[in-house]
Amino acid sequence: MTSTTDTLGLTQKRKLRQRSILKRLYVPMMLLPASLVFLVLFMGALIMAFLQSLGYAPIYGVNDFPTFRYYREMLEDPAFRVSIGLTFYYALVPTILGTILSIYLALSMRKRFRGRTLFQYIYKLPLMIPYLVGVAVVIELFTQGGIIARLFHAAGFIEVPQDFPRLLKTEAGWGIMTVYLWKQIPFTTLIVYSVLMGLGKEYEEAAGTLGANKRQTFIHVTLPQIMPGIVAATLIVFPFNFGSFEVPYILGADFPNTLPVQAWRVFDDADYTRRLGAMAIVMTISFISGVLLLIYLMLYRRYERIRGRQ
Amino acid sequence: MTITKNQRKKQASSGNRLSPYQRYYLIFIGIAVVVPFVPVIIRAFSFSWFWPSILPTKWWWEARENAWQPLGWDYIFSGPSHVGEAIINTVFIAIVVTIVCTAISLPAARVIAWEKFRGKSAVEFFLLTPLIVADIAIGLGILITFLQLGLTGGYVGIILAHLIPTTPYMVRVLTSVFQGLSRDYEEQARLLGATPLKTLWFITMPMILPGIMAGGLFAFLISTNIFLLTFFVGQGNIVTLPTMLFAKVIGGSSLDTIGAEVALILSLPGLILLIITERFLKEEIFAKGFGG
Amino acid sequence: MRKYLVGLVTAMVAMASGATSYAADEEAFRDAFLSGNLSYDDVLARAAEEGEVNWFFWGGSQALNTWVETSVSAAMAELGVKLNVTHITNTRDAVDLALAEKATGKGLGEGSVDAIWINGENFYTLAKNDLLFGSFAQLLPSSQYLFWDPSDARSGANLFDFGFPTESREMPWGAGQYICYIDTSRLSASDAPTTFAELEAWLQDSPGRFTYIAPPHFNGNTFVQEVMYAHNPDGTGHAPFMSSAESLGSAEIARLITPGFEYLKRIEPNLLGGSDPVYPKDQNVNETLVASGEVDMACRFGTSAVHTGISNGTLPPTTQNHLFPEGYMIGNKNFIGIPGNAPHPAAALVLANVLASPDSQISRLETIGYEIGIDAPKLSSTDLQRVADGMPPLYGVTLEGLGNNKVPDTNASLVDIIEGVWMEYIERGDTSRSLGQIVADVYNSKYGS
User: Fold this and answer.
1) Do A82 and A169 contact (CB within 8 A), yes or no?
2) Are residues C151 and C103 in the same domain?
3) Contact across the interface for A245 and B134, Cβ inside 8 Å
4) What is the pLDDT along chain C (449 residues), one digit of tens a residue?
5) Which residues of chain C does A270 touch, with a Cβ-Cβ cutoff of 8 Å?
6) How far is A259 from chain B (nearest CA, A)?
7) What is the pLDDT of residue C6?
8) Is C185 on the interface with A (CB under 8 A)?
9) CB 3.0-4.6 Å disulfide test: which of A153, A214, C45, C287 passes with B52?
C-alpha cells in the first residue's frame, strides 16, 4: 500500500518536474526557428565576412589570418574617403528631406478633401514597387535624351540632348536621391500617418483652444507625439540608403561612388584574392551604420527622458 | 475658461480643411507618384522611339506584323526571352520563402507578444538587426559558406538567403498582431476543456489569420523584390524578374522595349498587393510593426 | 518486409556505386575521346544518354536568343539532347560559376556549366585555372571547315585567341570585326572621322557627340587597343602588341602605350558628358545613346549590328556602318568553350560540333546576319553560294573595305594590363602617379615586381 502511494507521489513529482522543464524550454523552443535564421544565416554571414576581412579565405586561395592588411589598404586608398563622404551624402539628404516631406504629407492627409480615399490608395504605390523599377522610371524621365529632355526640346528650350542638364550618372547623385525619395516618402508617411490616426486630435484641439498657434501646436504637441514613428521610420530608411547597392551602382557616377558599389567593384575583380578587400569594405559599412544607429537611439532615449516619458 | 460649442466647431472645421499649400502639395505628390510610370508604359508598347519624338517613332503593334522574330510582348511571352521562367522562379521562391518565414516567425512572435522572459528586449532587438545591415555585407559574407556547402546556383540557397531580410519583418508584424489580441479567449477555451492544439486551431488561428495574411503578403512582396542576394547566391544560374531587370537597366541609359515590359511585370505583385490590402485588410497593418 | 528492405538496400548501394562509377566514367570518356579512341558516333550515343546540355551565353541580343532557341534547340533535339540556355549579363559570370564549383571540389560531370560562348580574357582565365575540358576542337567533324595548319596564315584566328594559343580547347563559332556606326541624320558619312586625329578634331568642333564603351568590357578594351595600335611610338601598329606582357616587361609596355593613353586623356573632355565623361557599360547602352540622340557615332564588334539594330527598332533607320579607324580595325573570332567540370561533356561536344556546322552557321547568317565563324574557303560551292546569298546588307561599307583594314587583336595578357591602366589613369583619373608608375604598379600586381 504504502509503496504504491509512494510511487504515485514520485510519478507526480516527476510529471511536475517534466512540466517545469517543458515550461522552461517553452520560450527558447518557440524562439529557436526564427533565431536560427538570425544566428546561423545572418550572424554566420557577418562572421564569415569578418574573418575574410582579416585574411581567412582558403576557398580563394588566401589565408594570412589574422591581418589588418585589407583594412590598411582600404584606408590608404584616397578613393575611400571620397566614397565614404558620398555614401553619407546620398543616404542622409533623402532621409532628412524625405522625413520633412512625409510629416507634411501625413498632416495634410489628415484633413478632409475630395478624393481622399483615392489619394490614400495611390500614394502608397511606390512603396509597393521594387527599387529597380524606380530606377527604370527615373532613367526614362531624366536622361539627357529622356522624355523630359524631349518635352523641353519640343517647347524649344533646348536644341540637342547635351543642352539638358545631366542628372544621372554624376557625383551629385540627383537620380539616386530621387529614387530614394520616391520610394521612401510613402513609407515614412504611412508610419507617421498611422501614428497620427492612433492619436486622434484631442491634444491638438486642446492646445488650439488654449491659444497655441499652429506652429506652437505642431512643435510642442504633434511632433513629440509622432516622434516614435519618425524614429522608427528613419531607423529603417537611413541604414537602407547607406547600404544600398543597385541604385547608386546604376544611377551614380562610374567613379567615385558609394562604399557598397566600391565593395562590389573590388569583389568583381578577376583576381579572387582581391575579394578580401571587398570584405573589409562591407564590414566597415556595417560597423559605421551600426555605430550611427546606436548613437541615434541613445540620443532619442535622452530626448524621451528629457521630455519625461521614462 | 468656457468654450462655446460654436467656437469649438469653428476651430475644428478650419483645422480640417486643406490650406492652399497643402492642396498643391497633395496634387504634386499625386502627380509625382503616378505620372513617372507613363513613359515606361509607353516604352513597353513601342517598337522604336528615337530622339526627339515625344511619342514612339513606331508602335509595337505596327511593327509586329512583318517582323521575322517575335517583338515586344510577343518576345516576352516566347520561350527564348526566359521571362516565363523568371516569373515562375520569382513566384516559386517567394511562395516558399513566405511559407517558411511564416512558420518560423509565428512561434517567436507569440512568445515575444505574450510571455515575459529574461532578455526579451534583447531578443526583439537582435531579430531586427538584419534590417539595418547592408544587403551586400550579408550577400558577400554568405557567399563563401554557401560555396563550400554547394548551395550556390540553386533554389535552396536563394530561399535561405531570402529568409534573412523577410523574417525580421514577419516577426515584427506578427508580434503586433498577437499583441493586439487578448489571451483571454485562449484561456477560456482551455478552461472549457479544449486541448491546446484545438485551442490553437479553432480559437487563435482564426483570430490571427488576417494578420498572417498581411505579413505573408508582405514577405512575398519583399522576396519578389530582392535582387542582390538572388544574384550573388544564384550565380547567374537562376534568373528572376529582378535579376532580369537589373541586366536591362545596368547601363543607366534609356530602357529598351523589353526592359520596360519586364519593369511593368515586376510591378504587378506590388500593385495586386496594394489592391488586396486596401480592399480586404486593415491598411495600417504594415505600419503596425514600426511604431504605428 | 525483409525482401523489400533487402531490395531497398541493394538499390541504394547500386545507386551509390553507380554515382561514383559515373564520375570515373566521365573521366574515362574524356581520356578516351581526347586520345582519339572514340568515334563521333560514340560521342553522339553518349550525348543522347546524357540527355541535356547547359549552355551559358550573353543574353543581351533578342535576335540571337530567338535564333538559338528555335534553330539550335531543334538541331540538338534531333540528336536527343535538350538544350538548356542560361542568359548571362557578362561572360565572366559563367566563368566564375565554373571556378566556384571547381573550388568546392566539383570535377568533370559534377558542375553546372557545359558550354560557354567565350573568347579572349575569359578563355585565358579558364586556361590559367586549368579548367578546360581539353583539346577537343580538331577531333570534331566540323573541324574540317576550319584552317588548323600553323604554317597557313589563315589558321591564325583559330589557333590564337587574343594572342593566347587555343590549342583546340575551344571551337570557333563566330567571327567579328570591330566597327563604328553613325546616325546619318545627324552626321553624314563624309563628315564622320576616319582616323583618330580626325576624331579628335571633330570632337573639338562638336564636343560630346561620341564616347566609347568602358573597359573592362571587351567592346571597350578593343577601342582602347585600336588607339594603342594607332599611336604606337615606333609606327609598327599592332605588331608589338602580339607579345605577352611578361616578354615585354613593364617599362617597354609603358613606352608602347604612353602616346595612346595621352590621346585618350586628351579627347576625354570632349567625350559625352565633358568634364564628367560617360563611358557606356556595354554595346546595348551605347546603342540607346545613339537612339536617344546623345551621341552621333558609336563603336562595337560586329558588322551586322546595324542591320540587327534597325530591324529590332533599337537603331534609327538612318544608321550606317562606318570604317573607323582606317587601318586599325580589329577582327577576331569567338568560340565555344567547355569547362573542365562540365556535367554533360559528350552533349557539350555535340553542341560545339552542331554550332560550327555549315548548316547552323548559314542559318544564323540568314536569320540574324551574324558573320560565319568557320572558314569560307573550306566550304562547298553550294554552301558558299548560300553564304553569299544570306549576307545581310552592310549599310555603308564593303567587304573589301572591311578586309583591307583588318588587324589582329592584342595579346590577352596585355589586354589585362591595358584595361587595368585605363581604370586607374582614365576612369579614376589618378594624377598622383605618372603613367609609367601606374603601368608598373598594374604590372606588378599581376606578375610581382
Assistant:
1) no
2) yes
3) yes
4) 444 444 444 444 444 444 444 456 899 999 999 999 999 999 999 999 999 999 999 998 999 999 999 999 999 999 999 999 999 988 988 998 898 888 888 899 999 999 999 998 899 989 989 999 999 999 999 999 999 999 998 999 999 999 899 999 999 999 999 999 999 999 999 999 999 999 999 999 999 999 999 998 899 999 999 999 999 999 999 999 999 999 999 999 999 999 999 999 999 999 999 888 999 999 999 999 999 999 999 999 999 999 999 998 999 999 999 999 999 999 999 999 999 999 999 999 999 999 999 999 999 999 999 999 999 999 999 999 999 999 989 999 999 999 999 999 999 989 989 999 999 999 988 888 999 999 999 999 888 76
5) 92, 121, 125, 216, 416
6) 10
7) 46
8) no
9) A153
Q: Do C244 and C357 have their domain in common?
A: no
C289 touches chain B (CB under 8 A): yes
Residue position matching grid coordinates 555605430: A291
Long-range contacts of C233-241 (CB under 8 A, 24+ apart): C233/C258, C233/C259, C237/C327, C237/C328, C237/C407, C238/C328, C238/C407, C238/C408, C238/C410, C241/C163, C241/C410, C241/C411, C241/C414
Kindly report the nearest CA distance between residue B130 and chain C, in angstroms: 26
Residue C395 near residue C307, CB atoms below 8 Å: yes
Does the CB of A263 have a partner CB in chain B at under 8 Å?
yes
**Under an 8 A CB cutoff, do A132 and B266 touch?**
yes
Please indicate, yes or no, whether residues C268 and C201 belong to a single structural domain of this protein: yes
Q: What is the pLDDT of residue C90?
A: 85
C276 and A143 within 8 Å at the Cβ level: the answer is: no
Structure confidence at residue B236 as a pLDDT band (50, 70, 90): confident
C-alpha cell at position C87:
542568359
3-state SS, residue C396: coil
List of chain B residues whose C-beta atoms are within 8 Å of the C-beta of residue A42: 129-130, 133, 138, 164
Whether A54 and chain B come into contact, CB under 8 Å, resolves to no
Domain-embedded: residue C184: no
C360 and C249 housed in the same domain: no
Residues in B closer than 8 angstroms to A221, CB to CB, are: none
Residue C443 maps to a domain: yes
Our count of domains for chain C comes to 2
Cis preceding linkage at A256, omega within 30: yes
Q: Is 80 exceeded by the pLDDT of residue B282?
A: no
Clarify whether residues C376 and C415 are in a common domain.
Answer: no
A78-306 is classed CATH 1.20.58.100: no
Chain C residue numbers with beta carbons less than 8 Å from the beta carbon of B237 are 86, 97, 112
Which residue ranges make up each domain of chain A? 78-306
Q: Which residue of B has its CA nearest to C61?
A: B81
Tell me which residues of chain B, numbers 57 to 96, contact chain C at a CB-CB cutoff of 8 Å.
Answer: 57-58, 63, 67-71, 75, 78-82
Residue range(s) defining the domain that contains residue C200: 193-295+411-447
Answer yes or no: do B52 and C293 touch at CB < 8 A: yes
Selected residue of B46, B48, B147 to mutate for chain C interface (largest C Cβ count, 10 A)? B48
Q: Which of residues 69-88 of B touch A (CB under 8 A)?
A: none
By Cβ distance, the residue of C86, C101, C280 closest to B251 is C280
Cis before residue C216, ω within 30 degrees of 0? yes
From the CA of C250, how many Å to the nearest CA of chain B? Answer: 33
Are C52 and C132 within one domain?
yes
CB pairs under 8 A between A and C: 45
Say if C272 falls within a structural domain. Answer: yes
Pairing of strands C160-161, C115-118: unpaired
Same domain, C72 and C171: yes
Pick the CATH number of B80-288 from 1.10.1790.10, 2.10.109.10, 1.10.3720.10, 2.60.40.1530: 1.10.3720.10
Alpha-carbon gap, residue A45 to A34, rounded angstroms: 16
Walk along chain A (310 residues) and give the pLDDT tens digit of each residue.
444 445 556 677 777 777 777 778 888 999 999 999 999 999 999 999 999 999 998 877 788 889 999 999 999 988 899 999 999 999 999 999 999 999 999 999 988 888 888 898 899 999 999 999 999 999 999 999 999 999 999 999 999 999 999 999 999 999 999 999 999 999 999 999 988 888 878 888 888 888 888 888 898 889 998 998 999 899 889 999 999 999 999 999 988 899 999 999 899 877 778 889 999 999 999 999 899 988 998 998 888 888 765 4
- ipTM score assigned to the predicted complex: 0.89
Query: Are C256 and C202 in the same domain?
Result: yes
CA-to-CA separations, C306 to A63, B70, C314, C405, in angstroms, rounded: 50, 19, 9, 19
Task: Tell me which DSSP letter residue C142 carries.
Answer: G
| Residue A115 neighbours by CB under 8 Å, 6+ apart | none
